[in-house]
Write a structure and sequence with these properties.
mainly alpha
């Protein structure tokens, strides 16, 4: 997303990259939470914590990236 001026719209590649990043945040957080649950037999505590942290990270990243265009 380099060389984008404020107010211009993001291209397909930028949106695709953002979508993949957001999916990785949510999926990665949940996956790590499930692994922690299996290790410490705390199901579903850490899976939920991982999901929430992944969603928060995804929202933060989306806000930071989309702020360039508004």
């Amino acid at each position: 997303m380099a060389n984008q001026s404020r107010g211009s719209s993001p291209g397909f590649g930028a949106l695709l990259g953002l979508g993949l990043t957001l999916g990785a945040c949510v999926g990665g957080g949940t996956f790590l939470g499930v692994l922690a649950d299996e290790k410490w037999s705390t199901s579903p505590l850490y899976a939920i914590v991982g999901l929430v942290l992944g969603v928060l990270a995804a929202v933060g990243i989306a806000f930071a990236e989309m702020r360039r265009y508004f």
